[in-house]
Write a structure and sequence with these properties.
15 strands; Elongation Factor Tu (Ef-tu), domain 3; alpha+beta; 25% strand; 2 domains; 323 residues
Length: 323
């Protein structure tokens, strides 16, 4: 037992006499990252909203192909929206015909009410003349009949006036109601057309096409894939204004020195040439990258501090080192 403790004390003495890591002169292990060449001028196509929780990609521009601004790069399935659009366009034509018929019927009702009012006014004038005949010229019986007829004519005139107001109001309300239905359909059709326009995406910049990795499967998204709204599907990057995009693991992010200016950038295509770079920005919010691991990553943008002498393209892999 005494021999064991004596050996333990000797080991502690030896360890305590060894120089610390900082004093040993051993260099700190550099932070190594991987990234890819990207362009400041780029376009990322995301899956649009649809009636269901998924939408199918019908067509994508070929991976690596060079497209020009205005070229078609992605087409999403518009079957459900297209059928609804056609149905609403047919309904719109029906509603417009219905509006014409409604206008004719309600205007005819107003015209008839106006005719009845004119007849009532004629009857009132005739009855007024007869009721104003002097008493000596006709009998009291006849006089009484004329007075009653005049009062009836006045009552019919009031009814005709009220009926005309009612028919005019029915005409205005009926036409307005039909017009509102037409406006609602026109707005719905315009919205559906805008949705269909979004389902056929055109390039906003000229450059190579790259398909995005599927969030759950270890393969790139292709035509025929069912995707969820807001998923990134395809990218187009200009062949200029190059930088490097990298994703930093949440553990390595704490080791990254944002204040340190210089980074070493080595293109895998040209391993014998090292370029200097500097950090432009790092996102403040980490994102899950399920195709890599269950951990979170920060997006890092890095600029080239010197002109790249070799020919490079978006998507080329880059090794990044910070001492």
């Amino acid at each position: 037992m005494t021999s064991f403790f004596s050996k333990l004390i000797m080991c502690v003495a030896v360890l305590s006499s060894m120089p610390s890591w900082a004093d040993s002169g051993v260099q700190k292990i550099p932070l190594l990252l991987t990234g890819e060449v990207s362009s400041v001028q780029s376009q990322t196509v995301t899956a649009p909203k649809s009636e269901g929780w998924q939408i199918q990609i019908q067509w994508l521009a070929e991976e690596g192909s060079i497209v020009q601004e205005g070229d078609l790069i992605a087409v999403f399935d518009s079957g459900g929206i297209q059928s609804q659009l056609e149905e609403n366009e047919e309904n719109l034509q029906t509603q417009k015909l219905e509006l014409i018929k409604t206008e004719m019927d309600l205007k005819q009702a107003v015209t008839e009410a106006e005719g009845r009012l004119r007849l009532a006014l004629i009857s009132v004038n005739k009855a007024r003349i007869e009721a104003n005949i002097p008493d000596g010229e006709i009998s009291h019986y006849e006089k009484g009949k004329f007075v009653i007829a005049f009062e009836r004519a006045l009552l019919e005139k009031v009814k005709s006036e009220e009926n005309l107001k009612l028919k005019a109001a029915e005409r205005d309300v009926g036409i307005q109601k039909q017009q509102i239905e037409i406006i609602k359909l026109e707005e719905k059709i315009a919205y559906q057309k805008s949705q269909i326009d979004k389902l056929s995406v055109k390039a906003q910049v000229s450059g190579p096409v790259s398909h995005v990795m599927h969030p759950y499967m270890q393969q790139k998204i292709a035509a025929g894939t069912n995707v969820e709204p807001a998923w990134e599907v395809v990218r187009v990057q200009a062949q200029s204004s190059y930088q490097v995009t990298s994703w930093v693991h949440e553990i390595d992010a704490a080791k990254l020195d944002m204040q340190k200016g210089s980074l070493d950038l080595i293109l895998d295509a040209y391993p014998n040439r090292t370029y200097k770079g500097r950090i432009l920005s790092m996102t403040s919010q980490a994102e899950l990258r399920s195709q890599w691991s269950d951990s979170a990553y920060y997006r890092l943008e890095i600029a080239f501090d010197e002109a790249v002498q070799q020919q490079i393209f978006p998507g080329m892999s880059v090794r990044i080192q910070q001492l």
